[in-house]
Amino acid sequence: MNNMCLAIPGKIIEIKDGTAQIDYGGVTKSASLRLFPNARPGEYALVHAGFVIQILDKDEGGELDALIDEVMGHNLQP
Amino acid sequence: MQDKITLAHGSGGQACRELVEEIFLPAFSNNMLNPLTDSAVCEAGEKIAFTTDSFVIKPLFFPGGDIGRLSICGTVNDLAVSGAVPKYISVGMILEAGFETDVLRRIIASMAETAKEAGVSIVTGDTKVVEGGSADGIFINTAGVGIFSKNRPPLTQKAMPGDKILISGNMASHGMAVMAAREKMEFSPPILSDAAPLAALADGVLQKGFEIHAMRDPTRGGVAATLCEWVYDGIDIAIYDECLPVRSDVSAACRMLGLEPLLIANEGIMLLSVPERFALQTLTALRSTKIGKDAAIIGEVKEVKEVKEGKKGGNVYAVTPWGTSRKIILPRGGLLPRIC
Amino acid sequence: MKHDIIELKNGIEKLAADLGPIQIMEVCGTHTFAVRRYGIGQLLPKNIRLVSGPGCPVCVTAQKDIAAALSIANEDDAIFTCFGDMLRVPCGDKSLYSLYESGKDVRMVTSPMDALAIAQRNPEKRVVYFGIGFETTAPLTAALIEAADNLKIDNLSVLSAHKTMPTAIRQLLKGGSKIDALLCPGHVAAITGADVFSFVADELGLPAAVSGFEPREIMTALFCIVSMLRNGEKNCVNAYPGAVTAGGNKNALSLLDKVFEPCDALWRGLGEIKGSGLKIRARYQKFDAARQFEIRREEIPEAKGCICARVLCGKNVPTDCANFGKTCTPEKPLGACMVSSEGACAAYYRYRGDE
Description:
The complex is a heterotrimer of chains A (78), B (340) and C (355). Chain A has 78 residues and is α+β, with helices and mostly antiparallel strands. Helices cover 18% and strands 38% of the residues of chain A. Chain A contains one helix and five strands; from the N terminus they run E-E-E-E-E-H. Chain B has helices at residues 14-28, 67-80, 101-118, 173-182, 199-207, 222-230, 248-257, 276-287; strands at 48-55, 61-62, 65-66, 85-96, 121-130, 138-147, 164-167, 214-216, 235-240, 271-274, 296-303, 316-319, 325-327. In chain B, strand 2 (61-62) and strand 3 (65-66) form a beta hairpin. Chain B has a seven-stranded mixed β-sheet, with helices on both faces. In chain B, strands 1-6-4-5 form a four-stranded mixed β-sheet, covered by helices on one side. In chain B, strands 2-3 form a two-stranded antiparallel ribbon. Chain B has 340 residues and is an alpha+beta fold. Chain C is of the alpha/beta class and 355 residues long. Chain C has two domains: 1-300, HypD, alpha/beta domain 2 (Rossmann fold, 3-Layer(aba) Sandwich); 308-350, no CATH class. Chain C has 15 helices and eleven strands. Chain C has helices spanning 5-16, 29-37, 63-73, 96-101, 112-121, 138-150, 165-173, 186-192, 198-202, 215-231, 250-259, 289-292, 308-312, 336-339, 344-351; strands at 22-26, 48-52, 78-82, 106-108, 126-131, 156-160, 181-185, 208-211, 236-238, 260-267, 271-280. In chain C, the strands form three sheets. Chain C has a five-stranded parallel β-sheet. Chains in contact: A-B, A-C, B-C.
């Protein structure tokens, strides 16, 4: 059982008194917002051992994708 | 009947008789049990299947079941997957003095209900009571007898090259339900155990006359344990990650704890090893039942002719969706203690 | 993340085609585990080798610290709590699990806050939480101590064996290591920020990428690394931008600083690394188990033939060890790397595929 860097994503459904209810797809469990007090319902959280440690930004991958595209295009000409 | 069990209830005297007549008999009543003879005398065919199992689970009650339900399912299912029709169950109980009688009644009621669901009779039993602290509330042992009909002999229980591996439902539900309850993980809704008798499901499949090589209910150690027990020198068993059915809440709980569903206990599913030509029909037969609606073909048995590291195969491995593979072996230490 | 695994696999193959042997180290137990679990090695060309560094916090916990934990758990009025992985780490012929079997109150928890709840429910006992883990987990322990302080709990303390990553990486990789690039731990970086790892490129001259833990995320990071190796670039790329920012989680970092301060730490297999540990600050000393208990920290010698120290540095692979799979197995681990399912040797043992 490895718990050390295990963090899984879930959607914040509700927030009350510094605790968020997180939906992991079929089941909900609470997590503390002590480490991310500005989280908002509807956002996707990265949760580690009962604490939200980050809010996930799905739009952030664009630049990286473009970089990879470029490398694949330039360097990998047959 | 007092509201707590005492040592007197286990010592064979009046209190013991009271326990049997007021709690066990009304719940289990049948004409093999009711005479309360030292042994039950029952009708049996030519060949019988005989098994036993003990139940020490903590907590006693969990979402989807309790120790009573488990104690019937566990033994019934071991009989059912041998190809026999489960018939007669014995119940041995060890109670801790101070155990609440009402809790005992609930457990007995659950056992009676499950026995009815499974089509079995509880025909004999025994109760002992030990000092407070010498047992954990209640321990139950059940033994069971199943009967083979002449035209349905025992299965060979040997997976053969070319077989498909089938599973009758979602994996890992029981182990995760118990773990979540025990560790008070407070999932919402609570994760439900899959504990269920498989007698009707097994019977339904075997009745169709398909050739089935092996059947087993993967309890402790999960699907991985059964596959590791089935594999032998000369074959490999390959299963495919994307074919393995797991409920989404169970999957989420496993991911949260870094647990592999293949290794987690089940109490209401079975694995089958079926020749390829019967695989789809067996799948259809399973899926046409309520308890088997999530059945799936999860892998296959491959013949291995090449010798490597002194063996010809003998491996179980799982294949990821992008073609890589990993060996499945069993951790020897108990992953999750006291789950059945 | 629009590129799929096979695209990335093919891309890496082409990029690495004329590069000679490459060793990429990962320093996170969860990466070690994921690489094995998903068979990442099978997706890479033969000249690329993934090497496990000292990223498994369970494996690098010094025997002295385990001995301290055992001596606390042995106390009759103590309830000792820890994550599941720590239970079976052997220390001599004992472990926390063997103490549990012999009747001591040792309990597995899945969150540090469970220890708080246990302390509140058992006021007559002294509850101790074993703080193991890197920067992903240490802020949670800090939150536990802060909460206990706010609630004026007086029967809870923490045995801290927390460690930090960057100092250890610097020590491992400076001068003469045969590592060509680093896969940086994505969840540590979610807390510390990606910038904390830029020294790998700037000071140590190695390309690096901050990586997530899904197979596609790992392959993306590896693609970035191999691309940099091919064109001689030395950067630390954030290949996990959805979860990792440059500056990290400021709340978590300031809470960490409020409760902990750096100290020297003993890493099993690696020896002492200065400034790589986390110690509870004096103002929270009533929550420091090291001060609240009489602790016996014994020196336990490593098993004969154990080469964990070399495996942890990436100098050897598990199969180079004479004990591997014979006298040292996951059921009976002799050395650090076999102890946790995230350890290099344990992960290799469990998931040996067709490599």
